[in-house]
Specification:
The protein is of the alpha/beta class. It has helices at 13-24, 36-40, 57-71, 94-122, 143-164, 189-202, 209-221, and strands spanning 4-8, 29-33, 47-51, 74-79, 126-130, 169-175, 230-233. The protein has a single domain (4-233), classed as Rossmann fold (3-Layer(aba) Sandwich), CATH 3.40.50.720. The chain is 46% helix and 15% strand. α4 (94-122) links the parallel β4 and β5. The structure holds NADPH dihydro-nicotinamide-adenine-dinucleotide phosphate.
Length: 240
């Protein structure tokens, strides 16, 4: 049996595509999201589906331990759950900043701490954090989102160095714009319309969630002694 893969934010977008791809290849899975019905309706074999808010560390840890009791220790954690609430600093509600920092940064830190000590003890394991190109360069109306994703890039690189002596890999992937539910949670209709206009004017739209999922799976399946530290993946037509 292959080793346990934990995927957060598996109820839509990249996470759902990864769940289907890893399952097809025989990996036992722990799938995590708040909309647990979206996880169970995937109807995947050897898969535990848990309703977890990644900002709740105890809930997150309980789910991981339950999956490990069933399938063995987690060999891969994909910290993918995230929210993008675009807004202008002049008027964006502070609750949106907090939600992004809580989920996108603290949720990632929670996950890493939950799995890393066992990985260190076993001298084996991989953590892949989903950042963004908005974690390596700035975009308008993305201030708090950029803060969260620059945070993911920074913490991933620190952890990569710290875990390297233990043969544990930390990778981050920085995707560009890909069609998912992500934009739909932004509260400003004007910003959402502007984003769609930019995509239409550049022709961004070829890249799919499957492209991102395959790339993550490829990176994980490299030998444990090889670490693809950072991947930037965008539509060829994305100009920024
Ligand atoms: P989706 O909105 O389709 O998926 C986001 C996932 O995160 C959902 O499964 C959602 O599940 C989950 N999620 C959100 N908040 C929480 C929470 N508090 N606890 C647990 N799960 C949560 O977007 P994407 O697939 O696009 O996004 C996945 C990741 O990729 C995010 O980190 C995003 O920032 C990043 N990204 C996306 C890009 C894009 O253009 N699509 C580009 C660059 C990065 P539920 O609501 O059921 O809890």
């Amino acid at each position: 049996m292959k080793k346990l893969v934990v995927i957060t934010g598996a109820s839509s977008g990249f996470g759902k595509a990864m769940a289907i791809k890893f399952n097809k290849d025989g990996y036992p899975l722990l799938l995590i999201a708040r909309r647990v019905e979206k996880l169970t309706e995937l109807n995947l074999s050897n898969t535990l589906c848990k309703k977890v808010d990644v900002t709740d560390k105890k809930q997150f840890e309980d789910a991981v331990r339950e999956a490990e009791a069933k399938y063995g220790k987690a060999d891969l954690l994909i910290n993918n759950a995230g929210v993008m609430l675009l807004g202008n600093l002049e008027n964006q509600d502070a609750s949106e900043w907090k939600q992004m920092l809580d989920v996108n940064v603290l949720g990632v830190l929670n996950g890493m701490q939950i799995v890393m000590n066992d990985m260190i003890a076993r001298k084996c394991g991989t953590i892949i954090n989903v950042a963004s190109v908005a974690g390596v360069k700035p975009f308008g109306d993305h201030a708090a989102y950029c803060a969260s994703k620059y945070g993911v890039v920074g913490l991933s690189e620190v952890a990569r160095g710290e875990l390297s002596a233990h043969n544990v890999r930390v990778m981050r992937i920085c995707p560009g714009a890909v069609d998912t539910e992500l934009l739909s949670h932004t509260s400003s209709d004007q910003i959402k319309a502007g984003y769609q206009e930019w995509k239409a004017s550049t022709g961004v739209g070829s890249i799919t969630v499957d492209d991102v999922a395959s790339t993550i799976k490829f990176a994980y399946e490299l030998p444990q002694g090889v670490n693809l530290r950072e991947i930037q993946i965008t539509d060829t037509r994305q100009d920024n």
